[in-house]
What does this fold into?
Amino acid sequence: MEFPVSTTRPRWERDAGQVTTSVRPNLGEQRDLIRQSVTNIISVLRTFSLMTMKIDDLLRFNIEITEFDPLNPLDHTIFQPMPVSEFSKYELEQELFHGLMTDNVKLTDLELPDPASNSASRLDIERAAMRESQRLYRYIDLLYTCHSQIEEPNDPISMAVGWISIPVPLPQYTWPRELGPNSWPRDHGMLSHDLGPEHVGWKCEMVSEWKDRSGRTTKVWPHVRMAVCHGHSGDPHGILIGELGAIAQVILNRLNQPQFDNESYFPVLMLSFFGPRHMRFLQAVYRPAGYLELRASQIFDFTTLAVSRLDLMLEYLACSPRRDHH
It folds into this structure.
């Protein structure tokens, strides 16, 4: 599915990545701009009546959306997927994979209600979309868990990279700053949301941060990698509110972490899964000029199993963060 948004390069690239010193806000001003923006996004999305925000809706929030090609090295601006040459050193541990396979992970035939049927309610359709999107995510996550180095069977790909899971607590818990620099997050917020009884909503299945242990001390990068499943079908003409809401919430959580008090660079990589069995990548980061750069890939179709596309998912799960022009 094509994504009919601007295919021009992002604004910061068109401007050669430069913000003149005279207009560049200082750190405090940048953080205030980001906080005001994400708070406004979250406030509006909590009452948004539709599941999709169109391009014009995004412009109201000073969001620039452009196309992102995960196969194009020029688009690996912030999250560098594991190179194919490195990924080829890993193979699937078949015995472990089949031992962990369960019925809610197998990519069986699609079980979808007929939208044209009078007996199929909107909730039935959304529940099916959520079920199949979660099934696809769990399948890819299992592949990620069971890929190990060919020469080192006890060295899985998930342990060879620096991504560490961030626990997402139950909604009733709060995490005050007094608990320390690793408190995450204050609450679920928009990471999971049901939008009331009318909609299934979305659910954050995974959120993780990069810990660099190459030096004498462990450095936590501000980058966040996440996966979100939706009870809705993705729209190539806009962004699901679950996609934008989860991105806004994760950036707000980063702002609230004391260890990032001197940071205004919070890139997010999202693997977004939705019905009937589709996914896409999104990259998001605030630029010093005060706008959110949101880049969306084409929609990948997994209603039939596409092995090459599964490899691409794994290469991005095993990606490495880096800082681009900022």
In short: The chain is about 30% helix and 25% strand. The first helix runs from residue 11 to 14. Confidence is low (pLDDT under 50) at residues 170-182.
